Amino acid sequence: MIVRAPAKLNLCLFVGPIRDDGLHELASLFEPLELADEITVTDADGGEDEVIAEGIEQPDLTARALAALREAGWEHPPVRIEVRKQIPVAAGLGGGSADAAAVLRLARGEVEGLRGIALELGADVPSQLDLRPCLVGGAGEVVEPIRPPGEHGIVLLPLESGLDTAAVYAEADRLGATRSDAELEVFRRKLRDATADGASPLDYPENLVNDLGEAALALAPEIANSLDALREAGAESSLVTGSGPTTFGLFRDREQAERAAVSLRESHPAAIATSPIRAEGGSA
């Protein structure tokens, strides 16, 4: 069996205060992308599960997800899971969470409480259990499906070195870049209104804000060059995604994004053109 684990894009990210559990409240629009890791699942040769993810320090979230399924009573015979990475690592695109969510989907209908298991694995995992765009709240555990957005293309510019998510949040706190609970609720209402009719994110640019952008830029100043390059390539909006350091630019369609990516690869060889998963609810 081959399972796709799509990257997720934070179209926006509003960050609130720190909760008692040490995590931040947030409001964000997530959308799953055509860019995806490929996970091959076969029967294990021996009597134990095996996870292989080249280039990823073990045990990664994929192995932890499989172990969590076993602890929850998943009785499927031992499996060998091989992860072929296409999503850049430590890039703010949720690659590890995507892989973990894909493994959890293997047990859908066989194990109860998958969403709770997902939350124990990480704040981004619950929103990636179902491959559909969503408004995310809490620290990631509150997932509210939204209508699929109107057409747009995306260019991603990953950097060679990643950023530590906790360090970016800490820097945002130091810079005073976070918001009150009341402000966060205002933005949640604005995002619900903006997405109610399935508009393209290009139609509500005033809501495309990342409160972690300044912090990511402080820790990785080269991000500024990526943002400038995206604008020069014709992006109508360009931001840091999640905690960075990847930047993204929005274009009217996939074709425009493909042309922009080609033009950018001379200076940014890792440029990726992609688009959101179009089918409502997505597919595994």
Description of the molecule:
This protein is α+β, with helices and mostly antiparallel strands and 284 residues long. The protein has a single domain, classed as Ribosomal Protein S5, domain 2 (2-Layer Sandwich). The strands form two sheets. Strands 1, 2, 3, 4, 5 and 6 form a six-stranded mixed β-sheet that branches. The protein is globular and about 55 Å long. The chain starts with a strand and ends in a 10-residue tail after the last strand. The C terminus is likely disordered.
Briefly summarize what is shown.
The chain has 284 residues and is of the alpha+beta class. The protein is 30% helix and 25% strand. The protein has one domain (2-274): Ribosomal Protein S5, domain 2.
Helix content: 25-40%
Q: How would a textbook summarize the main sheet?
A: 6 strands, mixed
Number of helix segments? 8
CATH structural architecture: 2-Layer Sandwich
Structural class: alpha+beta
**% residues in beta strands:** 25-35%
Q: What do the pLDDT scores average to?
A: 93
Distance, first to last CA: 11 Å
Written as H for each helix and E for each strand, in order along the chain, the element string is: EEEHEHHEEEHHHHEEHE
Shape: globular
- Domains counted in the coordinates: how many? 1
Low-confidence segments, ≥5 residues, pLDDT <50? 280-284
CATH topology: Ribosomal Protein S5, domain 2
- Integer-rounded radius of gyration: 18 Å
> Total number of β-strand segments?
10
CATH class: Alpha Beta
